[in-house]
Design a protein that fits this description.
Blueprint (H helix, E strand, L loop, with lengths): L8 E5 L2 H13 L4 E5 L1 H5 L9 E5 L7 H9 L5 E3 L10 H18 L8 H9 L25 E6 L3 H11 L7 E6 L6 H8 L6 E4 L10 E4 L6 E3 L5 E3 L12 H12 L3 E5 L11 H6 L4 E4 L8 H8 L5 E3 L1 H26 L1
Parallel strand pairs: 1-2, 1-3, 3-4, 5-6, 5-11, 6-8, 7-8, 11-12, 12-13
Antiparallel strand pairs: 9-10
Helix pairs in contact: 5-7, 6-11
Length: 348
Protein backbone atom coordinates (compact mmCIF):
# COMPACT_ATOMS: atom_id res chain seq x y z
CA UNK A 1 0.00 0.00 0.00
CA UNK A 2 1.33 3.42 -0.99
CA UNK A 3 0.75 6.19 1.51
CA UNK A 4 2.99 8.97 0.22
CA UNK A 5 4.37 9.61 3.71
CA UNK A 6 8.08 9.55 2.75
CA UNK A 7 9.63 13.01 2.91
CA UNK A 8 6.54 15.06 3.61
CA UNK A 9 4.84 18.04 2.02
CA UNK A 10 5.94 21.64 1.48
CA UNK A 11 3.07 24.07 2.11
CA UNK A 12 3.24 27.62 0.77
CA UNK A 13 0.32 29.90 1.72
CA UNK A 14 0.21 33.66 2.08
CA UNK A 15 -2.62 33.67 4.65
CA UNK A 16 -1.80 32.64 8.23
CA UNK A 17 -5.27 31.20 8.87
CA UNK A 18 -5.07 29.04 5.74
CA UNK A 19 -1.64 27.79 6.79
CA UNK A 20 -3.07 26.81 10.14
CA UNK A 21 -6.01 24.93 8.60
CA UNK A 22 -3.83 23.20 6.02
CA UNK A 23 -1.44 22.12 8.80
CA UNK A 24 -4.36 20.71 10.80
CA UNK A 25 -5.76 18.86 7.79
CA UNK A 26 -2.41 17.27 6.95
CA UNK A 27 -1.81 16.29 10.58
CA UNK A 28 -5.20 14.58 10.72
CA UNK A 29 -4.17 12.28 7.88
CA UNK A 30 -0.71 11.59 9.23
CA UNK A 31 1.12 13.52 6.50
CA UNK A 32 4.41 15.06 7.67
CA UNK A 33 5.07 18.70 6.77
CA UNK A 34 8.59 19.43 5.56
CA UNK A 35 7.98 23.20 5.49
CA UNK A 36 5.03 25.53 5.98
CA UNK A 37 5.19 29.29 5.53
CA UNK A 38 4.52 32.26 3.28
CA UNK A 39 6.15 32.81 -0.14
CA UNK A 40 8.81 35.14 1.27
CA UNK A 41 9.99 32.59 3.84
CA UNK A 42 10.07 29.86 1.23
CA UNK A 43 12.13 32.01 -1.17
CA UNK A 44 14.68 32.59 1.59
CA UNK A 45 15.25 28.87 2.22
CA UNK A 46 18.71 27.57 1.36
CA UNK A 47 18.63 24.73 0.68
CA UNK A 48 14.98 23.92 0.00
CA UNK A 49 13.90 20.93 2.10
CA UNK A 50 13.29 17.61 0.38
CA UNK A 51 9.62 16.75 -0.01
CA UNK A 52 7.28 14.52 -2.01
CA UNK A 53 5.04 17.39 -3.09
CA UNK A 54 4.65 21.15 -2.93
CA UNK A 55 1.16 22.40 -2.00
CA UNK A 56 0.42 26.04 -2.86
CA UNK A 57 -2.58 28.04 -1.63
CA UNK A 58 -2.37 31.74 -2.50
CA UNK A 59 -4.96 34.48 -2.22
CA UNK A 60 -3.89 35.82 -5.64
CA UNK A 61 -1.42 33.74 -7.65
CA UNK A 62 -0.77 36.69 -9.98
CA UNK A 63 1.03 38.46 -7.12
CA UNK A 64 3.76 35.80 -7.14
CA UNK A 65 4.67 35.14 -10.81
CA UNK A 66 8.35 34.40 -10.10
CA UNK A 67 7.47 31.87 -7.37
CA UNK A 68 4.95 30.06 -9.58
CA UNK A 69 7.37 30.02 -12.53
CA UNK A 70 10.18 28.60 -10.36
CA UNK A 71 7.93 25.91 -8.86
CA UNK A 72 6.62 24.89 -12.27
CA UNK A 73 10.19 24.54 -13.56
CA UNK A 74 11.13 22.04 -10.84
CA UNK A 75 11.29 18.38 -11.82
CA UNK A 76 12.01 16.75 -8.47
CA UNK A 77 8.56 17.13 -6.90
CA UNK A 78 5.03 17.71 -8.24
CA UNK A 79 3.29 21.04 -7.71
CA UNK A 80 -0.29 21.00 -6.42
CA UNK A 81 -2.58 24.01 -6.19
CA UNK A 82 -4.96 23.75 -3.26
CA UNK A 83 -8.78 23.53 -3.35
CA UNK A 84 -9.29 27.16 -2.33
CA UNK A 85 -9.73 28.88 1.01
CA UNK A 86 -10.73 26.54 3.86
CA UNK A 87 -14.13 27.25 5.45
CA UNK A 88 -14.55 27.36 9.20
CA UNK A 89 -13.99 23.90 10.76
CA UNK A 90 -17.11 22.12 11.97
CA UNK A 91 -19.23 23.15 9.00
CA UNK A 92 -20.17 20.65 6.32
CA UNK A 93 -18.45 22.92 3.78
CA UNK A 94 -15.19 22.35 5.67
CA UNK A 95 -15.60 18.56 5.55
CA UNK A 96 -16.14 18.75 1.79
CA UNK A 97 -13.15 21.09 1.39
CA UNK A 98 -10.96 18.65 3.31
CA UNK A 99 -12.09 15.77 1.08
CA UNK A 100 -11.33 17.79 -2.06
CA UNK A 101 -7.87 18.52 -0.69
CA UNK A 102 -7.13 14.87 -0.05
CA UNK A 103 -8.53 13.74 -3.37
CA UNK A 104 -5.96 16.05 -4.97
CA UNK A 105 -3.19 14.73 -2.71
CA UNK A 106 -4.08 11.10 -3.40
CA UNK A 107 -3.95 11.76 -7.14
CA UNK A 108 -0.27 12.62 -6.66
CA UNK A 109 0.82 10.49 -3.70
CA UNK A 110 -1.40 7.42 -3.77
CA UNK A 111 -3.72 6.29 -1.00
CA UNK A 112 -3.34 8.31 2.18
CA UNK A 113 -5.61 6.52 4.63
CA UNK A 114 -3.71 3.91 6.65
CA UNK A 115 -5.75 0.76 7.24
CA UNK A 116 -5.54 -2.26 9.49
CA UNK A 117 -3.46 -5.13 8.10
CA UNK A 118 -3.41 -8.83 8.79
CA UNK A 119 -0.57 -8.44 11.28
CA UNK A 120 -2.43 -5.94 13.45
CA UNK A 121 -5.59 -8.08 13.38
CA UNK A 122 -3.62 -11.21 14.30
CA UNK A 123 -2.04 -9.31 17.19
CA UNK A 124 -5.50 -8.28 18.36
CA UNK A 125 -6.69 -11.88 18.14
CA UNK A 126 -3.75 -13.02 20.29
CA UNK A 127 -4.58 -10.65 23.14
CA UNK A 128 -6.19 -12.30 26.20
CA UNK A 129 -9.55 -11.10 27.48
CA UNK A 130 -8.76 -8.76 30.37
CA UNK A 131 -11.97 -6.92 31.31
CA UNK A 132 -15.16 -8.16 32.93
CA UNK A 133 -18.43 -7.85 31.06
CA UNK A 134 -20.90 -5.26 32.35
CA UNK A 135 -24.08 -6.70 33.93
CA UNK A 136 -27.48 -6.57 32.30
CA UNK A 137 -29.44 -3.62 33.83
CA UNK A 138 -32.08 -4.70 36.35
CA UNK A 139 -34.94 -2.91 34.62
CA UNK A 140 -34.09 -3.95 31.07
CA UNK A 141 -35.95 -6.91 29.61
CA UNK A 142 -33.73 -9.09 27.38
CA UNK A 143 -34.68 -9.30 23.72
CA UNK A 144 -36.30 -12.43 22.31
CA UNK A 145 -34.32 -14.96 20.27
CA UNK A 146 -35.47 -13.84 16.80
CA UNK A 147 -36.76 -10.35 17.57
CA UNK A 148 -36.27 -7.95 14.63
CA UNK A 149 -34.15 -4.92 15.48
CA UNK A 150 -36.09 -1.70 16.07
CA UNK A 151 -33.19 0.27 17.52
CA UNK A 152 -30.12 0.31 15.28
CA UNK A 153 -26.69 1.56 16.30
CA UNK A 154 -24.11 2.23 13.59
CA UNK A 155 -20.50 1.65 14.62
CA UNK A 156 -18.12 3.54 12.31
CA UNK A 157 -14.36 3.06 12.44
CA UNK A 158 -11.09 3.12 10.52
CA UNK A 159 -7.48 2.82 11.74
CA UNK A 160 -7.50 1.60 15.37
CA UNK A 161 -11.18 0.78 15.13
CA UNK A 162 -11.12 -3.02 15.47
CA UNK A 163 -9.46 -2.93 18.89
CA UNK A 164 -11.81 -0.19 20.13
CA UNK A 165 -14.97 -1.80 18.76
CA UNK A 166 -13.96 -5.20 20.15
CA UNK A 167 -13.42 -3.67 23.62
CA UNK A 168 -16.84 -2.02 23.37
CA UNK A 169 -18.61 -5.26 22.37
CA UNK A 170 -16.72 -7.35 24.92
CA UNK A 171 -18.04 -5.08 27.68
CA UNK A 172 -21.69 -5.51 26.65
CA UNK A 173 -23.98 -8.34 27.78
CA UNK A 174 -25.87 -10.20 25.08
CA UNK A 175 -29.61 -10.12 24.31
CA UNK A 176 -29.91 -6.34 24.36
CA UNK A 177 -32.96 -5.02 22.43
CA UNK A 178 -30.77 -3.48 19.71
CA UNK A 179 -28.61 -4.45 16.74
CA UNK A 180 -25.37 -2.99 15.44
CA UNK A 181 -24.34 -2.11 11.90
CA UNK A 182 -20.53 -2.12 11.77
CA UNK A 183 -18.90 -0.03 9.02
CA UNK A 184 -15.13 -0.49 9.18
CA UNK A 185 -12.66 0.92 6.64
CA UNK A 186 -10.56 -2.12 5.80
CA UNK A 187 -9.05 -3.90 2.84
CA UNK A 188 -11.64 -6.39 1.58
CA UNK A 189 -9.04 -9.19 1.79
CA UNK A 190 -8.95 -8.88 5.59
CA UNK A 191 -12.71 -8.82 6.24
CA UNK A 192 -12.77 -12.52 7.14
CA UNK A 193 -9.92 -12.05 9.63
CA UNK A 194 -11.79 -9.13 11.18
CA UNK A 195 -14.97 -11.18 11.53
CA UNK A 196 -13.09 -13.93 13.41
CA UNK A 197 -11.49 -11.47 15.81
CA UNK A 198 -14.37 -9.13 16.54
CA UNK A 199 -16.78 -11.37 18.47
CA UNK A 200 -14.34 -13.95 19.82
CA UNK A 201 -14.94 -12.86 23.43
CA UNK A 202 -18.39 -11.26 23.17
CA UNK A 203 -21.96 -12.50 23.39
CA UNK A 204 -22.92 -10.92 20.05
CA UNK A 205 -23.48 -12.67 16.73
CA UNK A 206 -21.71 -11.30 13.67
CA UNK A 207 -23.68 -11.65 10.43
CA UNK A 208 -22.80 -10.88 6.83
CA UNK A 209 -25.05 -9.02 4.42
CA UNK A 210 -27.65 -11.19 2.64
CA UNK A 211 -30.38 -9.66 0.48
CA UNK A 212 -33.73 -9.35 2.34
CA UNK A 213 -32.39 -10.96 5.53
CA UNK A 214 -33.83 -9.29 8.64
CA UNK A 215 -31.35 -7.82 11.10
CA UNK A 216 -32.26 -9.08 14.58
CA UNK A 217 -31.54 -8.00 18.13
CA UNK A 218 -28.20 -9.27 19.40
CA UNK A 219 -26.62 -9.20 15.94
CA UNK A 220 -23.84 -7.17 14.35
CA UNK A 221 -24.11 -6.64 10.62
CA UNK A 222 -20.64 -6.33 9.09
CA UNK A 223 -21.08 -3.85 6.23
CA UNK A 224 -19.46 -5.04 3.00
CA UNK A 225 -16.45 -3.07 1.83
CA UNK A 226 -17.18 -3.07 -1.89
CA UNK A 227 -21.00 -3.09 -2.13
CA UNK A 228 -23.41 -0.43 -0.87
CA UNK A 229 -26.10 -1.47 1.59
CA UNK A 230 -29.04 -0.04 3.54
CA UNK A 231 -31.87 -1.35 5.75
CA UNK A 232 -35.55 -0.99 4.86
CA UNK A 233 -38.31 -0.16 7.35
CA UNK A 234 -38.48 -3.78 8.54
CA UNK A 235 -34.69 -3.90 9.08
CA UNK A 236 -34.25 -6.09 5.99
CA UNK A 237 -30.87 -5.84 4.30
CA UNK A 238 -30.94 -4.21 0.87
CA UNK A 239 -27.80 -4.65 -1.21
CA UNK A 240 -27.13 -2.37 -4.15
CA UNK A 241 -25.20 -3.29 -7.25
CA UNK A 242 -23.04 -0.17 -7.21
CA UNK A 243 -20.04 0.40 -4.91
CA UNK A 244 -19.89 3.06 -2.22
CA UNK A 245 -19.52 6.60 -3.52
CA UNK A 246 -16.78 8.90 -2.28
CA UNK A 247 -13.29 8.13 -0.97
CA UNK A 248 -14.14 5.52 1.67
CA UNK A 249 -15.29 1.91 1.58
CA UNK A 250 -17.60 1.30 3.22
CA UNK A 251 -18.84 4.87 3.47
CA UNK A 252 -19.88 5.58 7.05
CA UNK A 253 -21.62 8.76 5.88
CA UNK A 254 -23.74 6.78 3.41
CA UNK A 255 -24.61 4.08 5.95
CA UNK A 256 -25.71 6.72 8.47
CA UNK A 257 -27.64 8.74 5.89
CA UNK A 258 -29.58 5.84 4.37
CA UNK A 259 -30.49 4.13 7.66
CA UNK A 260 -31.42 7.38 9.42
CA UNK A 261 -33.62 8.36 6.46
CA UNK A 262 -35.69 5.21 6.98
CA UNK A 263 -35.47 4.68 10.75
CA UNK A 264 -35.31 8.29 11.98
CA UNK A 265 -34.86 8.58 15.73
CA UNK A 266 -34.39 4.81 16.05
CA UNK A 267 -31.01 5.07 14.29
CA UNK A 268 -27.91 6.10 16.26
CA UNK A 269 -24.17 6.12 15.68
CA UNK A 270 -20.87 5.76 17.52
CA UNK A 271 -17.73 6.90 15.70
CA UNK A 272 -14.57 5.15 16.85
CA UNK A 273 -10.88 5.64 16.08
CA UNK A 274 -9.95 6.38 12.48
CA UNK A 275 -8.22 8.65 10.00
CA UNK A 276 -10.10 11.12 7.84
CA UNK A 277 -13.55 12.59 8.46
CA UNK A 278 -16.03 9.87 7.45
CA UNK A 279 -19.23 10.28 9.45
CA UNK A 280 -18.90 14.05 9.85
CA UNK A 281 -21.15 14.85 6.88
CA UNK A 282 -24.02 12.63 8.06
CA UNK A 283 -23.83 13.34 11.80
CA UNK A 284 -25.90 16.58 11.71
CA UNK A 285 -28.73 14.93 9.73
CA UNK A 286 -28.82 11.89 12.01
CA UNK A 287 -28.88 14.19 15.03
CA UNK A 288 -31.73 16.24 13.54
CA UNK A 289 -33.69 13.04 12.91
CA UNK A 290 -33.60 12.38 16.66
CA UNK A 291 -30.76 9.88 16.84
CA UNK A 292 -27.84 9.87 19.25
CA UNK A 293 -24.35 10.66 17.94
CA UNK A 294 -21.54 9.44 20.17
CA UNK A 295 -17.78 9.27 19.66
CA UNK A 296 -14.83 7.52 21.18
CA UNK A 297 -12.95 10.08 23.27
CA UNK A 298 -10.06 11.28 21.07
CA UNK A 299 -7.36 10.80 23.71
CA UNK A 300 -8.18 7.07 23.79
CA UNK A 301 -7.96 6.62 19.99
CA UNK A 302 -5.09 5.20 17.96
CA UNK A 303 -6.12 7.80 15.35
CA UNK A 304 -8.43 10.56 16.68
CA UNK A 305 -9.25 12.31 13.38
CA UNK A 306 -12.69 10.78 12.76
CA UNK A 307 -14.07 11.39 16.28
CA UNK A 308 -12.60 14.90 16.25
CA UNK A 309 -14.31 15.65 12.93
CA UNK A 310 -17.68 14.62 14.35
CA UNK A 311 -17.08 16.54 17.58
CA UNK A 312 -16.33 19.65 15.50
CA UNK A 313 -19.87 19.50 14.05
CA UNK A 314 -21.31 20.06 17.53
CA UNK A 315 -23.74 17.14 17.17
CA UNK A 316 -22.11 14.56 19.46
CA UNK A 317 -23.97 14.20 22.78
CA UNK A 318 -21.55 11.80 24.50
CA UNK A 319 -17.91 10.76 24.31
CA UNK A 320 -15.96 8.14 26.23
CA UNK A 321 -13.53 5.25 25.99
CA UNK A 322 -14.98 1.96 24.67
CA UNK A 323 -16.02 0.67 28.09
CA UNK A 324 -17.56 4.03 29.05
CA UNK A 325 -19.51 4.01 25.79
CA UNK A 326 -20.81 0.51 26.60
CA UNK A 327 -21.83 1.58 30.12
CA UNK A 328 -23.60 4.68 28.81
CA UNK A 329 -25.47 2.58 26.26
CA UNK A 330 -26.75 0.24 28.99
CA UNK A 331 -27.93 3.21 31.07
CA UNK A 332 -29.70 4.69 28.06
CA UNK A 333 -31.47 1.41 27.24
CA UNK A 334 -32.57 1.02 30.85
CA UNK A 335 -33.91 4.59 30.88
CA UNK A 336 -35.82 3.95 27.66
CA UNK A 337 -37.26 0.73 29.10
CA UNK A 338 -38.43 2.50 32.25
CA UNK A 339 -40.04 5.32 30.27
CA UNK A 340 -41.81 2.83 28.01
CA UNK A 341 -43.12 0.96 31.08
CA UNK A 342 -44.48 4.15 32.63
CA UNK A 343 -46.14 5.09 29.35
CA UNK A 344 -47.89 1.71 29.20
CA UNK A 345 -49.09 2.13 32.80
CA UNK A 346 -50.52 5.60 32.09
CA UNK A 347 -52.30 4.42 28.96
CA UNK A 348 -53.80 1.34 30.65
Amino acid sequence: MSTGRGRGVIVIADDVLQRHRLQQALDRHGLPVAFIGDPERFAALDPTPEADLCLVELTDEEEYPELIEALLAEDERPLLFGPGAAPEPGRQEYVRWERRLFAKLEDQLGRLEALENEGSLDALAAQPETRERLPMPNWLEPAGEDEPAREIWILGASLGGPAAVKAFLDALPGRLPIAFVYAQHIDAHFSSVLSRVLTRDSEWRLVTAVQDRTLRCGEILQVPVEQALWLDGEARMQLREEPWSGPYGPSIDEVMTHIARVHGGHCHSIIFSGMGNDGALAAPALNQAGGHVWVQRPDTCASPAMPESVLATGTADFQGDPRELAARLLRLLEEQSLLAGRSRCHSA
